[in-house]
Amino acid sequence: MARHFLALHDYTKAELDGLLALASDLKGKQKQGVEHHLLKGKTLAMIFEKSSTRTRISFEVGIYQLGGHGLFISSATSQMGRGEPIKDSARVMARYCDGVMIRTFGQEIVEEFAGYSDVPVINGLTDLFHPCQIMADLQTVIEHKGAYTGLKFAWVGDGNNMANTWIEAAAILGFDLILACPHGYEPDRKVLAWAQAQAPGRITLTSDPKLAVTGADVVNTDVWASMGQEAEQKEREKAFAGYCLDDTLLVLAKTDCVVLHCLPAHRGEEISDSVLEGKNSVVWDEAENRLHIQKAIMATLMG
Ligand code: CP
Ligand code: NVA
């Protein structure tokens, strides 16, 4: 049976650490021009039901650098968009391809797809989780801070797919995470309950961004309205007043903290231009690391 990458909770700390180590090794090889065709002749199908810049490019370039080929499939121009059942699409694609990456809405869609797929399925973002992004973020933190252990991680903003995935990461890997979310925009209740049971005392939820950011080593935010929530933009802008990661808020964090944002960013909403472009921001390294960690994930699952 194929092993999938749908959510961090399917992986142990040792396995996630292994992926991070492989990503660092592959990054070194790529920078030095050392050949690393671990997936020679293999094909990755990349299904997109939502927009993407980073995920699409990093997966396509990543599979190419591993000696394979990436196939971009938009749901709008495939039979999936016309209602062909997921279970049929999954079984057909597994006959052609060696792996599938999906970006879609409900987590149950990737789970159903994986349930019918004989080849590995990778979650390229759902409404619930964004596991590839959090792995890239962890790689970035390790590069800048040496390790993720012993650090205080702060999340400011929506309790969205990114927040949910950070919660799982904190529980599995064992670091302190404090999330500041407005009332009504908290992370997924089940995910939080699972994580708090796994790692008692590690994960704190507040509605006070100042409390979250104070003394933090890693400060992370994301858009207030995620893909699929565009109609709620105005109402969310009101609810998230006071949650902008700007200089006044960031001054409360450690002076050598790193600022993460998965991008795309809305400057002047969840993050100020000065913070995004400032000395603590590592967002370009973070974006680059999508390439390296996804190569590690593909090589491990599809190799
Ligand atoms: N961070 C991220 O997943 O970016 P894209 O939506 O551009 O893929
Ligand atoms: N939370 C955002 C992340 C985009 C990469 C979204 O789901 O749209």
Number of helices: 12
Q: What would you give as the CATH superfamily of the largest domain?
A: Aspartate/ornithine carbamoyltransferase
**Any guess at the CATH architecture of the largest domain?**
3-Layer(aba) Sandwich
* Proportion of strand residues: 5-15%
Instruction: Provide the structure class.
Output: alpha/beta
| C-alpha geometry | globular
- Name the assembly state: single chain
In the predicted model, the low-confidence regions spanning at least 5 consecutive residues are none
Number of domains: 2
- Report the strand count: 9
Mean pLDDT figure: 98
Which topology of the largest domain does CATH recognise? Rossmann fold
Question: What is bound: which ligands?
Answer: phosphoric acid mono(formamide)ester, norvaline
Strand order of the largest sheet: 7-6-5-8-9
Helix content: 40-55%
| Alpha-carbon distance between the two ends | 14 Å
Order of helices and strands: HEHEHEHEHEHEHEHEHHEHH
Supply Rg: 19 Å
Can you walk through the features of this model?
- The protein has 303 residues and is of the alpha/beta class.
- The protein folds into 2 domains: 8-130 and 289-302, 3-Layer(aba) Sandwich (Rossmann fold), CATH 3.40.50.1370; 132-286, Aspartate/ornithine carbamoyltransferase (Rossmann fold).
- Helices cover 43% and strands 14% of the residues.
- It has helices spanning 13-32, 54-65, 86-96, 107-116, 131-145, 161-173, 189-198, 209-213, 233-239, 247-250, 273-276, 283-302, and strands spanning 43-48, 69-74, 99-103, 121-123, 152-156, 176-180, 203-206, 218-221, 258-261.
- The strands form 2 sheets. A 5-stranded parallel beta sheet has the order 7-6-5-8-9.
- Helix 1 (13-32) crosses helix 12 and helix 3 packs across helix 4 (107-116).
- The longest helix has 20 residues, at 13-32.
- It is globular and about 55 Å long.
- The two termini are 14 Å apart.
- The model has no long low-confidence stretch (mean pLDDT 98).
- The chain binds phosphoric acid mono(formamide)ester and norvaline (NVA).
- Norvaline (NVA) binds at residues 125, 160-162, 222-223, 226-227, 262.
